[in-house]
């Protein structure tokens, strides 16, 4: 029947290619990050061991493959499987077969990574975890090269971008006054969780430009998302705005794969003719260019429509949340973490407080002792060091260190971390950039709190320091393995 042809979107083949390969690439990064960090943070001998976490629950509400048994070996097997499947999807191999092949591949990634997130505790409590899960589930129904891209699934991916952008915009408008008086970016580039190599330059821009940045952000997040549903070429232009603004966030900070996911998903609104007009190498008509005669089997149409109806039904709660006075940020409304609420930086931290960990080999610790500072890969420490670009790779320990002064340094995992340093735990030390004792165990460690700010251009020319830091206090005094670990007062 002719009316069934509406469900096919042959003019979005380029979008499908970007969506499938891009989301798969971010899954690859996520599994690699987990493989490198999970055992030290959450493994059998980790800071928050998963076996202890599972033992505390007689019934797990959220699904995970580790519900009955966890081991570091099993975790590595899950990551290895995820890496292989992700790599195959990036290469486009499953997409060459029937549509059920990439469907199974993406659903496998979704289930494997959900198993990790649901036991990841505070180290996996970030909004981009559920974003990756929702994106993986949704793009699973985009089909393969043998079928036309399904229009309803593309619309639902645009709906995901809308929730991601508009939700963040509404959180800001309802949040701190700095977003309404246009002063938020006086502080954000300096106080964000993990600055990048260009963050200092962005911070030092004139304040009028920062105010223009905030206005541009409000337009990009509160107006542009509605245009994603407009006819072409308006929708493609709106998607381009999303891509450009997200690239600026990539350049000025490190937010794991959050910004890269927004960029990839925005391609759901870019049609082949518009993409061809910008880059002529992209075919305006893929079917004509490849000479393929594709048809959507009825059974596949039924599957995509069933998935679309499911996601549409689950959209009620996040839609209501968008316009709620008590809007939730980064919240899931079901155990499968599908069709979630997103948002970030409802308020901006005005000062940057850094937690610095030091150790000494001296028997009797004091101010005159030889205290040596541990270096982290991503978070600021050495005042002369240029912050590195890590995104889309996620440094979980460094991110949690940023939250300590905002909450409390007296966190269970942080005391476990100090104990690992005192024991010179090799697995933990590999997560750091610099071990000042070259594998030896310090006798004492202490924790000090510093105020950090970016050096002005004049200060940098005079000292070569990119940061200026001032000692505030010592929240955890010298402690050793000979003393009981616990809350220090």
Features:
alpha+beta; two-stranded antiparallel ribbon; 21 helices; 6 strands; disordered C terminus; LMF1/2_C
List the helices and strands and how they pair.
Layout (H helix, E strand, L loop, with lengths): L12 H30 L7 H6 L16 H20 L8 H18 L9 H13 L11 H24 L2 H4 L7 H4 L7 H5 L3 H16 L1 H4 L6 H19 L5 H9 L5 H7 L7 H5 L7 H17 L1 H7 L29 E9 L11 E2 L1 E2 L19 H8 L8 H11 L3 H4 L2 E3 L9 E11 L2 H7 L3 E13 L10
Antiparallel strand pairs: 1-2, 1-5, 3-4, 5-6
Explain this structure to me?
This protein is α+β, with helices and mostly antiparallel strands and 489 residues long. 49% of the residues lie in helices and 8% in strands. The strands form two sheets. A four-stranded antiparallel β-sheet has the order 2-1-5-6. The protein has a two-stranded antiparallel sheet with strand order 3-4. Helix 4 (100-117) packs antiparallel against helix 5 and helix 12 (234-252) packs antiparallel against helix 13 (258-266). The chain is globular.
> Please, what is the average pLDDT?
94
Shape: globular
In percent, how much strand structure appears in the residues? 5-15%
Biggest sheet strand line-up:
2-1-5-6
Element pattern in H and E: HHHHHHHHHHHHHHHHHEEEHHHEEHE
Task: List low-confidence stretches.
Answer: 484-489
- Pairing-aware structural class of the strands and helices? alpha+beta
Main beta sheet strand tally, sense and closure: 4 strands, antiparallel
Indicate the percent of residues in helices: 40-55%
* Count of individual beta strands: 6
Q: Determine the number of helices (DSSP H or I, runs of at least 4 residues).
A: 21
Distance between the first and last residues' Cα: 75 Å
Radius of gyration: 24 Å
Protein name: Lipase maturation factor family protein
Keywords: Endoplasmic reticulum, Membrane, Transmembrane, Transmembrane helix
Main location: endoplasmic reticulum
Family: Belongs to the lipase maturation factor family.
């Amino acid at each position: 029947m002719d009316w069934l042809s509406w469900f096919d979107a042959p003019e979005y083949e380029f979008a499908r290619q970007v969506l499938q390969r891009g989301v798969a690439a971010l899954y690859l990064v996520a599994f690699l990050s987990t493989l490198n960090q999970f055992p030290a943070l959450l493994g059998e001998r980790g800071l928050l061991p998963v076996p202890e976490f599972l033992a505390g629950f007689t019934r797990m509400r959220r699904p995970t493959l580790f519900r009955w048994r966890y081991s570091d070996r099993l975790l590595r097997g899950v990551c290895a499987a995820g890496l292989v499947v992700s790599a195959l999807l990036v290469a486009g191999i499953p997409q060459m077969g029937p549509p059920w092949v990439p469907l199974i591949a993406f659903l496998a990634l979704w289930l494997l990574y959900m198993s990790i997130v649901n036991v990841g505790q505070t180290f996996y409590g970030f909004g981009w975890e559920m974003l990756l899960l929702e994106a993986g589930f949704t793009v699973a129904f985009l089909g393969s090269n043998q079928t036309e891209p399904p229009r309803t699934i593309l619309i639902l991916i645009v709906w995901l971008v809308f929730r991601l952008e508009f939700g963040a915009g509404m959180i800001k408008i309802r949040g701190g006054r700095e977003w309404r008086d246009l002063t938020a970016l006086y502080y954000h580039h300096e106080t964000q969780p993990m600055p990048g190599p260009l963050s200092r330059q962005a911070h030092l821009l004139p304040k009028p430009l920062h105010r223009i940045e905030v206005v541009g952000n409000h337009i990009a997040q509160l107006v542009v998302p509605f245009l994603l549903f407009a006819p072409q070429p308006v929708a493609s232009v709106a998607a381009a705005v999303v891509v450009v603004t997200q690239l600026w966030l990539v350049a000025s900070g490190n937010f794991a794969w959050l910004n890269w996911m927004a960029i990839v998903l925005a391609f759901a609104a870019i049609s082949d003719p518009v993409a061809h007009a910008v880059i002529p190498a992209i075919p305006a008509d893929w079917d004509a260019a490849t000479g393929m005669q594709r048809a959507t089997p009825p059974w596949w149409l039924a599957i995509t429509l069933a998935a679309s109806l499911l996601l549409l039904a689950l959209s009620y709660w996040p839609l209501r949340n968008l316009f709620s006075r008590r809007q939730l940020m980064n919240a899931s409304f079901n155990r499968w973490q599908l069709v979630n609420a997103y948002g970030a930086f409802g308020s901006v931290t005005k000062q940057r407080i850094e937690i610095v960990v030091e150790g000494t080999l001296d028997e009797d610790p004091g101010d005159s002792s030889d205290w040596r500072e541990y270096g982290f890969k991503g978070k600021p420490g050495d005042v002369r060091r240029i912050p590195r670009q890590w995104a889309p790779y996620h440094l979980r320990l460094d991110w949690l260190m940023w939250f300590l002064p905002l909450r409390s340094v007296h966190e269970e995992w942080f005391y476990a971390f100090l104990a690992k340093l005192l024991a010179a735990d090799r697995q933990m030390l590999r997560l750091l950039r610099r071990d000042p004792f070259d594998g030896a165990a310090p006798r004492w460690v202490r924790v000090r709190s510093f105020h950090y700010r970016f050096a002005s251009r004049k200060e940098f020319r005079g000292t070569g320091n990119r940061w200026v830091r001032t000692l505030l206090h010592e929240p955890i005094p010298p402690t050793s393995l000979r003393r009981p670990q616990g809350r220090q007062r």
